[in-house]
Write a structure and sequence with these properties.
Layout (H helix, E strand, L loop, with lengths): L7 E2 L8 E5 L1 H13 L3 E5 L2 E5 L2 E2 L4 E5 L3 E5 L8 E6 L2 E6 L3 E4 L2 E7 L2 E3 L3 H9 L10 E4 L2 E6 L2 E3 L6 E4 L2 E6 L2 E3 L16 E6 L2 E3 L5 E3 L14 E7 L2 E3 L3 E6 L6 E12 L3 E6 L7 E13 L3 E6 L10 H4 L12 E15 L2 E6 L6 E13 L20 E19 L6 E7 L3
Length: 426
């Protein structure tokens, strides 16, 4: 990646880069100056720059040179309160460290680092002393032609990269590292966005590595935009709760997703789709191929009894068929092929549809799973009538059109396959 020949150097706008002085005003001044001339590149040279929230404008590129570090301010006042979607709900929240709204042709590139210094926010979250939801590290809303490339992102206060209602987003060659015990520090979360390309990234975080979302049922129907045309390729995922996850915020729908050529190590689940009654929406046309997993709790889960914040709810947990309505989630046309999982711990797979809306058209083809018999017991996914398991086989219930071709499960305890209420596809 070549340094741009013409740029707006933030040191020319008063940035100190000494790791102590607050440089927010200098950064924002350089961005605004570039925008006022029709666009340009904002150069952040080597140094340590403390900053609060900054906002990219149309046709601006923030370029972090090698050795440049943006340090997130540890003062909450440096992150103004804005109205934005957070976890599916439009609400007041602290602004992201790097933000943009209704912007086009924006980029964050280079070989530098952004350190969110999230520890103070994680502490506030655990102590329940937050005045508003934590800032995300990078979040763009209603933007088009977005590029994030080359940078290293660490210690995010909450979600790390979160495009919301954006179009044509590329995240390439990005390294994301958040401590394994940091709360809700997801890696890359496209939300109600379309044409999103995630490639050649390394993600090691305290929650899901990549999560695809589209809002929840309490949001106005006009805001429930699908997340669609998503590719995830050539990535490594480590430690997160899930490698690639869809949901549980999926009321706007998710479709046309391709996941390929990835490695998952030590994630709780590998490929995970989660929702519940009341959420509505759909997940359809998902293809996963050429994936290697090691030491995951469960390689594949599709769970329509996901009970976070609804455990024991009579509607969510009801195992009898209920009337189909706009709150009934639909999952269909999911195909997984050429996958190897070694030393899986809890179960080889967990697929749990609704009796009134079975998961439809699910294929596993050329899949090899070896269980680790010395693993502790645990839960394959969060459904309230499933007991703890250890090195169990593949469980499927309420599926219409399940096809298993060349699926091998080894070293499991008990039956390799437990298939219930599975029918032919009409």
């Amino acid at each position: 990646m070549n340094q741009p020949s013409t740029s707006f150097n933030i040191r020319d706008y008063g940035a100190r880069g000494d790791g102590a002085t607050l440089d927010t005003r200098a950064l924002q001044s350089a961005i605004d100056a570039a925008a006022q001339t029709g666009g340009g590149t904002i150069l952040v040279p080597a140094g340590q720059y403390v900053t609060g929230s900054i906002f990219l404008r149309d046709n601006t590129t923030l370029y972090l040179d090698a050795g440049a570090v943006l340090l997130g301010s540890e003062n909450a006042a440096d992150y103004p309160i804005v109205t934005a979607r957070w976890e599916g709900v439009t609400q007041d929240t602290h602004a992201p460290l790097i933000a943009a709204e209704n912007a086009r042709n924006i980029a964050l590139v280079g070989r530098g680092t952004i350190d969110g210094r999230g520890a103070i926010w994680w502490q506030k979250h655990r102590a329940k002393t937050l005045d508003a939801p934590r800032p995300r590290l990078i979040s763009f809303s209603s933007c088009s032609n977005v590029l994030i490339e080359g940078v290293t992102l660490i210690n995010s206060p909450a979600w790390t990269i979160n495009p919301v209602r954006c179009e044509n987003v590329t995240v390439n060659q990005v390294t994301i590292i958040n401590p394994p015990d940091s709360p809700n520090t997801d890696g890359i979360n496209p939300d109600s966005s379309r044409n999103v390309h995630i490639s050649n990234c390394h993600v090691d975080v305290g929650d899901d590595c990549v999560t695809i979302k589209s809002g929840i049922e309490t949001e106005s129907p006009g805001l429930r935009v699908p997340c669609e045309n998503i590719t995830v390729t050539n990535c490594t995922m480590v430690h997160g709760h899930g490698g690639v996850v869809i949901g549980s915020e999926m009321s706007g729908g998710v479709r046309n997703v391709v996941i390929s050529n990835c490695v998952f190590v030590g994630t709780d689940r590998g490929i995970r789709i989660k929702s519940r009654r009341g959420r509505g929406g759909f997940v359809e046309d998902v293809r996963v191929t050429n994936v290697v997993m090691r030491e995951v709790l469960c390689p594949f889960t599709i769970n329509l009894y996901y009970h976070i914040n609804k455990r024991g709810d009579k509607i969510v947990s009801d195992k009898n068929a209920r009337l189909v309505d706009e709150g009934t989630p639909r999952v269909r046309h999911i195909h997984l092929s050429h996958i190897t999982a070694r030393d899986a711990k809890i179960a080889a797979g967990f697929v749990y549809g609704l009796p009134e809306m079975p998961i439809e058209d699910l294929t596993l083809d050329d899949v090899s799973i070896t269980m680790a018999r010395d693993a502790p017991a645990g839960y394959a996914d969060m459904a309230d009538d499933i007991p703890e398991q250890r090195a169990a086989g593949f469980f499927a219930r309420n599926v219409r059109g399940l096809r298993l071709r060349d699926v091998e499960i080894a070293d499991q305890i008990g039956e390799a396959f437990l298939i219930e209420s599975v029918s032919r596809r009409n």
